């Protein structure tokens, strides 16, 4: 028991002497190698940088257009000829003929010479009085109207008066405006007086009536006197 106690007392002394020796003999262990503190794990990272490329945002609502090349025969460029029906063709031909006829009549001289009596001419009364002239003019009711004409086969307003007065020895120019310069102007019209202005001509037959070549539809007929007409006396 005494021995054990002595030994125990000497143990700290021995440890004190041996501990530095043991520690010098041991290899140095890094502090991070402590088992209680495991070595930190460093993740490898790249310091290389890449340039940023901005990708434009495209909305699905962006309008999309298609350029149709006319050389490919797009519907918009199709030129489909219109096929005339028989009725349309007949109407077009009639219109062209009417235009050609009107152009030809306008190209004719406006002051043709008074022709000799034709098969359409009526028998002239023996006297050259105003009453005889009215009677003679009334025989031509229904004669056709033809622009520029001056015979019973077809005449216009001034061509009719030119023809009738010529049968009584009075020669008038064709234009109605020029006929208004012939004769004596009067304000108390009498049968047989010439009626004329710049646009029309006729013969006064009395009772507020006149005979004149009106138009292609009505031809030569008796109507009430037209307003705005001048009256000129050519026969006594």
Strand content: 5-15%
What's the number of extended β-strand segments? 8
Q: Kindly name the structural category.
A: alpha+beta
Sheet with the most strands, sense and barrel status: 6 strands, antiparallel
**First-to-last CA distance:** 198 Å
As laid out across the biggest beta sheet, the strand order is: 3-8-4-5-6-7
**Overall shape:** rod-shaped
Count of runs of 4 or more consecutive helical residues: 5
* Poorly predicted sequence stretches spanning 5 or more consecutive residues: 59-66, 70-75, 107-119
Radius of gyration: 64 Å
Sequence of secondary-structure elements: HHHEEHHEEEEEE
Helix content percent band: 25-40%
Rounded mean pLDDT is 75
